[in-house]
């Protein structure tokens, strides 16, 4: 397990997507519990091999939960403590008479102090290094809670105090870019949101004709939430990044007035996109974020 692979897995947690229409969203519980666990490891009460099921962990979870909860989300850290096991890098145990038993259901209040979890599958070695924890924490925030910079700054502060880590302003790479791309291509089913070109390359081949574009660039937003992304073919990615093509809050394409359809076929194809709808993902949880499409439209060259 490399850090690269670990980040890819953190970007693709099966978090559960719930709700209908405008309330559709990803449940925050698994990434929130991991952030709380990293805190406890930073501060000493937990190690990667033994994460106690304790009130401190629940409090850490709740503090952030209150900042990110949406709609009917419930403050239940006991659920991810159990369900993280489905990710393949986490095991939970309940301590009985001299023997520990695998946890197979969410824990109860009376289990506090009598259960623990541990990282497995190579995560235990990665997570033991403070620098790795910081990179994983940044990745979790960028992917699941990009608007909560307060979480990030609060945490960077703690980690800095604990380990004298140098936190740079440079966005850290470590596999987040391929992980973002994989997620966006899955959500858009490998189809360009402008022209509809769909090319699927067999799994394992990293070549693709469809890109995952950020609406607000990562360097500016540190936002890898799928609602800050669009699947675009190379041509339309190029055009959007040069501000001659932009999605708008009306979820239609807008084309710069600099484009003259009489000049070339390429320009005619681009200008034909004006007023066409953005080809959206099936799941409304991942519709382009309003802030992102506004940002793009504002930059369209007049
Ligand atoms: Zn295209």
Layout of secondary structure:
Elements: H1 3-11, E1 17-18, E2 25-26, H2 29-43, E3 51-52, H3 55-68, H4 78-83, E4 90-95, E5 100-102, E6 115-119, H5 123-127, H6 130-144, H7 149-163, H8 176-187, E7 210-214, H9 218-221, E8 229-233, H10 234-241, E9 245-247, E10 253-255, H11 265-272, H12 290-299
Antiparallel strand pairs: 1-2, 3-6, 4-5, 4-6, 7-8, 9-10
Helix pairs in contact: 1-6, 1-8, 2-3, 2-6, 6-7
The chain binds zinc ion.
Mean pLDDT: 89
Number of folding domains?
2
The secondary structure category is alpha+beta
Q: Number of helical segments?
A: 12
Q: Mind describing the biggest β-sheet?
A: 4 strands, antiparallel
Shape: elongated
Proportion of residues in extended strands? 5-15%
Instruction: Give the quaternary arrangement of the chains.
Output: single chain
Portion in helices? 40-55%
Major sheet: order of its strands? 3-6-4-5
Report how far apart the termini are: 48 Å
> Quick one: how many beta strands?
10
N-to-C SSE series?
HEEHEHHEEEHHHHEHEHEEHH
Brief write-up:
The chain is α+β, with helices and mostly antiparallel strands. 40% of the residues lie in helices and 12% in strands.
Notes on the structure:
The protein has 302 residues and is an alpha+beta fold. It has 2 domains: 3-163, no CATH class; 176-299, no CATH class. Helices cover 40% and strands 12% of the residues. It is built from 12 helices and 10 strands. The strands form 4 sheets. It has a 4-stranded antiparallel β-sheet. The termini are far apart. The relative contact order is 0.12.
